[in-house]
Write a structure and sequence with these properties.
Blueprint (H helix, E strand, L loop, with lengths): L2 E12 L2 E12 L3 E5 L6 H8 L7 E6 L2 E2 L5 H7 L1 E3 L12 H13 L3 H5 L3 H20 L15 H13 L5 E5 L7 H16 L3 E5 L3 H7 L2 E6 L2 E6 L1 H5 L2 H8 L2
Parallel strand pairs: 3-8, 3-9, 6-7, 7-8
Antiparallel strand pairs: 1-2, 1-4, 4-5, 9-10
Helix pairs in contact: 3-5, 3-6, 5-6
The chain binds adenosine-5'-diphosphate and magnesium ion.
Adenosine-5'-diphosphate (ADP) binds next to β2 and α1.
Length: 252
């Protein structure tokens, strides 16, 4: 088995609350994984722990067998682990293209000043960055929207922009936090196709999503969190029939 990510006893406490509690989870290369569970179950926190946005209280995160638990977010991104955020944090008053270029830099450079100021080195990098940004915008189907202001694009286009931004670091694995939230069924269908396409091109995917129809169609492997704990994992078929899951989540 070819494991990309392994978490072992991964735990995050906020004060007295165990937002993520002793979670062991493995992500096999090439698969589409999903994490489901009620609101507040710890799904986004789990992503934050893997991507280095939060430090775990205890436990470890391995990437290809290497301990990345204590690495800063920009170094984790540099290793090929990328993510989107539940609430897209795009710059409204910039174009789609500039968001991808700037976002890419912010993710990979540890020095924000260096990333924002136009140093000589950055100027040299600019052309390459621009080409890369156009390439990922093409992949997500936003070539035509590259020069539009983010404030004028639809929610679905914002979701695609966020994915483009995550793709710009050329990840091996991408974590998507509710990529289909707030978009209509047709758009959800389109986004599902995009995720499948990315996966077919070799990208390993892990997504959080509430749209069960989408998950059941898309995921090879599902983990269910409830109150920070893993209560089940398996194929969509196994999860659908799981008593604990039905009780905690699907039946609710
Ligand atoms: P989910 O994404 O499954 O809806 P979250 O991971 O966002 O859940 O949150 C899990 C729990 O941790 C919730 O009870 C939430 O209020 C709490 N939590 C998340 N982030 C923080 C934080 N930065 N500080 C304190 N509590 C937090
Ligand atoms: Mg969340």
């Amino acid at each position: 088995m070819n494991l990309l990510i392994e978490t072992k006893n991964l735990t995050k406490r906020f004060g007295g609350l165990a937002a993520v509690n002793n979670v062991d989870f493995s992500i096999e290369k090439g698969r589409i994984n999903a994490i489901i569970g009620p609101n507040g179950a710890g799904k986004s926190t789990f992503f934050n722990l893997i991507s280095g946005f939060h430090r775990p209280t205890s436990g470890t995160v391995l990437f290809k067998g290497i301990d990345i638990t204590k690495l800063p977010a920009n170094e984790i991104a540099g290793l090929g682990i990328s993510r989107t955020f539940q609430t897209t944090s795009l710059f409204d008053q910039s174009t789609v293209l500039d968001n991808v270029i700037v976002g890419h830099r912010l993710r990979t450079k540890s020095n924000l000043v260096d990333a924002i100021l136009r140093t000589k080195r950055l100027k040299r990098e600019e052309a390459a960055c621009r080409d890369k940004a156009m390439e990922v915008l093409d992949i997500v189907g936003l070539t035509e929207s590259a020069d539009r202001m983010v404030s004028s694009i639809s929610q679905e286009e914002k979701k695609r922009t966020a994915i483009a931004l995550a793709l710009a670091t050329e990840p091996e694995i991408i974590f998507l936090d509710e990529p289909a939230a707030g978009i209509n069924p047709d758009e959800t269908e389109g986004l599902t196709e995009l995720i499948k396409k990315l996966n077919r091109s070799g990208l390993t995917v892990c997504l959080i999503e509430h749209k069960m129809h989408m998950i059941m169609n898309l995921a090879d492997h599902i983990m269910v969190l409830n109150y920070g704990e893993k209560i089940a994992e398996g194929t969509p078929k196994e999860i659908r029939g799981n008593e604990a899951v039905i009780k905690a989540y699907l039946g609710g």
